[in-house]
Backbone:
């Protein structure tokens, strides 16, 4: 009877072990989760120290402890480059081990074991307490969730929670955390794109209408981020708009360095879009690659000065023709205006800026670029450029649209200085300093200007 009971227990154990090996259960990388939480703790500690909420000695001790745990976490995983995954040969070996181990154990126990022997009480066993400080990412995430319940308006906390949930494979919880972050800061450049990407991952790669709207917002807020353009092209492909997808992907490849890690995925999608649009995929990819920044730079560098100037003017003219023929958004016309300024065609640049403002009247980047374009030359070599009335209007509008942006304050301060209002110039430049990080390279120049006015950075 005892042997029958042992056999049934062994069979049950084997079935439980085999199931995850032959099924498709999501993998949980607890080490990655722990590392993510530790890094967030370091970042939060730095912010608290900067705000003066934690003393220097306490901050140093806490930082050493967190870094020690990161080092111990790395030592615990040495010699396992696969990260513990099972695939191919590893899975076959694991299956063989699961089947053979019980058989060998039963044979050995039949030879040496004795079912009638009394067991060893737990209290009499050797202490096997887990090593102190071993990372438990779920406990740390639970602690973060408790902090957010006490402080539900902590944007950085919700973003950290979303990242941790993604690492733990809890996609729905990650989306929920990002929705809360979006409610708190819909205009933060990090948030709409992150939420859109999380929704796409939750929906198995489908760019839903909600995600598409989020990516459109993200593209306006962070135009240099390649992800919104990629997902918007993916939405076009999924909707059967291959030509629209191809146009977006051509522009994306054209502004992506050749060593960018995401470029192969973008190029694969571009070839699929070209095929869907009835174009040769290899030719479409070659044409897009020819406009990439490093490819253009290499081509221009190899040319003699006269040929280089002619090539640049030809590229600007080609861009102007394409925008006139196919249309474009406000930022595209502003980029054309900047290129026309570089080649000295200021009349054309003025028209392009007017077109850009008409298409995107509330884009502070366009207003700032046009404001710089409208500056007058300095009266002497060591003087400020002249902030004309037209430039003043642009910078004031940009400041109203984005009060957190420090750049307009510099030019508004110059205009106040030129008008003889030294007090207002000093106030604007002190406000500018308050918005700049302590290590910003422009701080010394601004502090020197305040000193020239006879005031300090703090008034």
Residues:
């Amino acid at each position: 009877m005892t042997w029958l009971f042992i056999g049934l227990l062994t069979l049950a154990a084997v079935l439980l072990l085999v199931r995850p090996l032959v099924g498709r259960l999501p993998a949980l990388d607890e080490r990655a989760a722990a590392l993510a939480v530790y890094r967030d703790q370091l970042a939060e500690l730095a912010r608290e120290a900067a705000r003066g909420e934690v003393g220097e000695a306490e901050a140093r001790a806490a930082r050493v402890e967190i870094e020690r745990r990161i080092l111990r976490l790395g030592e615990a995983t040495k010699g396992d480059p696969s990260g513990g995954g099972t695939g191919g040969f590893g899975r076959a070996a694991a299956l063989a081990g699961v089947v053979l181990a019980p058989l060998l154990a039963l044979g050995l126990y039949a030879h040496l074991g004795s079912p009638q022997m009394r067991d060893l009480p737990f209290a009499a066993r050797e202490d096997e307490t887990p090593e102190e400080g071993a990372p438990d990412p779920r406990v740390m995430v639970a602690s973060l969730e408790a902090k957010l319940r006490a402080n539900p308006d902590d944007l950085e906390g919700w973003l950290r929670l979303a990242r941790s949930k993604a690492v733990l494979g809890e996609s729905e919880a990650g989306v929920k955390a990002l929705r809360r972050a979006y409610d708190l800061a819909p205009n933060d450049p990090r948030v709409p794109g992150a939420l859109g990407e999380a929704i796409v991952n939750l929906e198995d790669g489908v760019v839903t209408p909600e995600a598409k709207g989020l990516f459109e917002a993200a593209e306006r807020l962070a135009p240099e981020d390649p992800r919104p353009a990629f997902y918007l092209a993916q939405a076009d492909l999924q909707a059967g708009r291959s030509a629209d997808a191809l146009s977006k992907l051509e522009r994306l490849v054209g502004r992506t360095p050749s060593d960018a890690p995401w470029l192969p995925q973008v190029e694969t999608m571009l070839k699929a879009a070209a095929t869907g649009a009835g174009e040769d995929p290899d030719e479409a990819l070659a044409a897009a690659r020819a406009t990439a920044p490093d490819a253009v730079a290499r081509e221009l560098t190899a040319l003699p000065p006269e040929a280089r100037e002619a090539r640049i003017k030809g590229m600007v003219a080609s861009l102007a023709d394409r925008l006139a023929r196919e249309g474009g958004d406000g930022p595209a016309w502003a980029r054309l205006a900047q290129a026309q300024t570089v080649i000295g065609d200021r009349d054309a640049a003025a028209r392009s800026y007017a077109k850009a403002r008409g298409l995107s009247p509330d884009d502070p980047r366009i207003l700032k670029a046009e404001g710089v374009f409208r500056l007058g030359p300095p009266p002497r070599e060591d003087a400020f450029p002249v902030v004309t009335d037209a430039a003043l209007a642009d910078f004031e509008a940009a400041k109203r649209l984005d009060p957190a942006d420090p750049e307009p304050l510099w030019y508004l301060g110059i205009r106040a200085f030129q008008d003889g209002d030294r007090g207002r110039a000093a106030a604007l430049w002190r406000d500018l300093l308050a918005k700049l990080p302590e290590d910003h390279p422009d701080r010394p120049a601004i502090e020197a200007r305040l000193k020239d006015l006879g005031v300090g950075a703090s008034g």
